[in-house]
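Notes from the 1:1 (GR / supervisor)

We went over the backlog. Supervisor wanted to see one worked example end to end before approving the batch request, so GR pasted a single chain during the call. The sequence is below; no edits were made to it. Supervisor asked that the structure be written out right there so they could see what the output format looks like.
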Amino acid sequence: MRGLTAAAAGQGAAAGVLGATEGRALYETTGWRTVAPLTGAVRGPDSSGT
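Structure output shown during the call:
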């Protein structure tokens, strides 16, 4: 994550967005912080295949 953060910052990024289901503590050790919860949604065929 530090490498990705450094690469993005090196290209001018001032902020980043990370969506993860596991491992929040890992990202927080590299300086990331939670700003808002993330909600996922999927739209597609129902279980009958239609």
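Supervisor's comment: The first helix runs from residue 2 to 10.
Batch request approved.
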